[in-house]
Design goal:
globular, Aminopeptidase, alpha+beta, 4 helices, about 190 residues, 7 strands, 7-stranded mixed β-sheet
C-alpha cells in the first residue's frame, strides 16, 4: 500500500467530494440499495449527523479523497450502544490496493477508543453475481476478520433483480459484565 495516504476525520465540507465517490455506487451498482443520489446538502447533513457520535474518516491521496469509511448506530436502544454498523466506499480504481484495509483498520482503532465492541456490516450479496453486484465486499470483510452472522434472501430489489443481504460481524473488544460507557467521537482526539 502506498504510504502517502493521509487518514483524517471528514467534515461536512467534504460532502461534494465524498458524494462524487458514492454516486456511481448508487447509479451503477447494487452495492447500495439506495436508488437516488442525494443532494450535496443532504449528504453534508448525513456526515454532520454521523459525527455527533461516530467517526467518519477519509483517505487522502495526492490531495484528493480516495475513499471513506464511517460507523453508524446499529440500533436505537441503549443495550446496543457497544455495537455499530460499519461502511466503506472507495473511489473507482482504488480497490485491491490496500486503501480499504488501511481505512477500515483506522476506523477500528477509533472505535476501540470509543469502547465499541461489535462491528457489524450489512452487505449486498448476489446469489448469482452480475454486472451490478459481485461479492467482493463479502470477501473484503472476510479478509479483515469479519464472520458471517446472517443471510437474508431476496430482500433488496434494484435494476430489475432481487438481491440478498448478509450481515457480517467482527468483535474488537471484550464483552465484560460492566462494559465501559461508549465515548462520543466529539470527546476524543484521534488525529
Amino acid at each position: 500500500m502506498d504510504e502517502n495516504i493521509l487518514i483524517r476525520m471528514a467534515s461536512s465540507k467534504d460532502a461534494k467530494e465524498i458524494l462524487d465517490i458514492y454516486a456511481p455506487y448508487i447509479r451503477d451498482t447494487a452495492i447500495t440499495f439506495e436508488y437516488d443520489v442525494p443532494t450535496v446538502d443532504e449528504f453534508a447533513q448525513r456526515i454532520k449527523d454521523t459525527l455527533k457520535m461516530y467517526p467518519y474518516i477519509v483517505a487522502i491521496k495526492d490531495g484528493n479523497i480516495a475513499g471513506y469509511a464511517y460507523a453508524s448506530e446499529f440500533k436505537k436502544r441503549a443495550a446496543y450502544d457497544w455495537a455499530v454498523e460499519t461502511s466503506i466506499y472507495l473511489k473507482q480504481g482504488y480497490s485491491g490496493k490496500g486503501l480499504g484495509k488501511k481505512l477500515y483498520l483506522a476506523l477500528e482503532e477509533i472505535l476501540k477508543k470509543q469502547n465499541i465492541i461489535n462491528l457489524n456490516a450489512c452487505i449486498a450479496y448476489a446469489s448469482a453475481e452480475d454486472a451490478h453486484l459481485g461479492n467482493t465486499s463479502m470477501k473484503f470483510h472476510e479478509h479483515l476478520g469479519y464472520k458471517l452472522t446472517g443471510h437474508f434472501n431476496k430482500c433488496g430489489y434494484k435494476f430489475g433483480t432481487w438481491y440478498d443481504i448478509i450481515w457480517m460481524e467482527k468483535i474488537i473488544g471484550e464483552h465484560f459484565e460492566n462494559p465501559a460507557p461508549v465515548i462520543p467521537i466529539t470527546q476524543l482526539k484521534v488525529f
